[in-house]
Amino acid sequence: MKALQIIGAGQFRIVDADMPDLQDHQVLVEIQMVSTCPRWDINMMAGRDMFNYAKAPEYPLPIGFPGHEMAGVVKAVGPGVYRFAVGDRVAALEHIVPKGAYAEYAAYREEELIKLPDSITFKQAVSFELLKCVAIGIMQLGDLKGKSVLISGLGPAGILAVQVARLWGASHVVGIDVSESRIQYVRNLGLGTVMHANELQDLRFELGYDCVGAASSVQNVLAHVNEHVVIFGVLHGDITYPEALWARGTKLESYKYRPVGPRDHQLLIDLVVNKGLNTECLQTHHASFADYGQAIELLKRQEAIKAFFFPQADFQSLGDHLGQSAAESNTSE
């Protein structure tokens, strides 16, 4: 099968890889659509560790990594599998280890997948892994009904968070960013109230959800929230917790990962099918794997929310020579 592999900072290649060997409780998925995760892709191509910018990743990265947001069709099941059958439409809910989903096929454990109803398209489902993470973090805020919520960052996570908070009953939701183009994009979609981060002035909120992770963003959220703040973005920098927050009893916590189960699956499907959450709006640019480097540049310049690929078509459109030439032409930023 064909796959993409990042081999160094700013360097990638198209490779021939072995088909995954199915282990007990694993499912082989023919990947129909895969989407970038901007923070992962940008950092891996920039030579930075996702969680510690002072470190570099160990190159070459595993084949297909860091691709993890995918939707596809079950092609085979291993011993012990009982939740899925050949032909089921599925989406990923977890990273796969040790390889990634920038490939034609990938093997997943049963618990890493969600079965899709026919009413959900691959484009709606491809970023269910991100939606799952965003939803888990928002659950940490407790019951949103009647609450006011401030969402910081209008990247993919923030765009979903603004919608989830509103659909789960928050009375007033405001999304903020420092990018005028992102603000206008979300405003044009009609997803909710959005404004520049500097325009909050004396507005106050009960709950806050930071999707940026930069210390300055978290600090701004803390300055406008009374009760509870969750940091969803990967934190970089130090935060000050002023005495006034202690006196008010403001709770500050990080995102807490947890495994998901059938009830979570139902909540995700309900958000999209019954409540009308817009996940397709994240997928703004289709690219060929040969143009992966250019797609990452679009993400860096915030000209794309996410870039997406169709492995079954995009890899097939690349001959071996074309794939290698494309890789060689994208060896530096």
Summarize the SSE layout with pairings.
Blueprint: E1 2-8, E2 11-16, E3 26-35, H1 38-46, E4 69-77, E5 89-92, E6 105-109, E7 113-115, H2 122-125, H3 128-139, E8 148-152, H4 156-167, E9 172-177, H5 180-189, E10 193-196, E11 205-210, H6 215-222, E12 225-231, H7 243-248, E13 251-254, H8 262-273, E14 283-286, H9 292-300, E15 306-309, H10 311-314, H11 320-328
Parallel strand pairs: 8-9, 8-11, 9-10, 11-12, 12-13, 14-15
Antiparallel strand pairs: 1-2, 3-4, 3-6, 3-15, 4-5, 5-7
Helix pairs in contact: 1-9, 3-4
Helical element count?
Answer: 11
Global geometry: globular
What's the β-strand tally?
Answer: 15
Determine the N-to-C terminus distance: 28 Å
Helix content: 25-40%
Structural overview:
- There is one protein chain.
- The C terminus is likely disordered.
- Helix 1 packs across helix 9 and helix 3 crosses helix 4.
- With 333 residues, the protein is α/β, with parallel strands linked by helices.
- The strands form 3 sheets. Strands 3, 4, 5, 6, 7, 14 and 15 form a 7-stranded mixed beta sheet that branches. A 6-stranded parallel beta sheet has the order 10-9-8-11-12-13, sandwiched between helices.
- It has 11 helices and 15 strands.
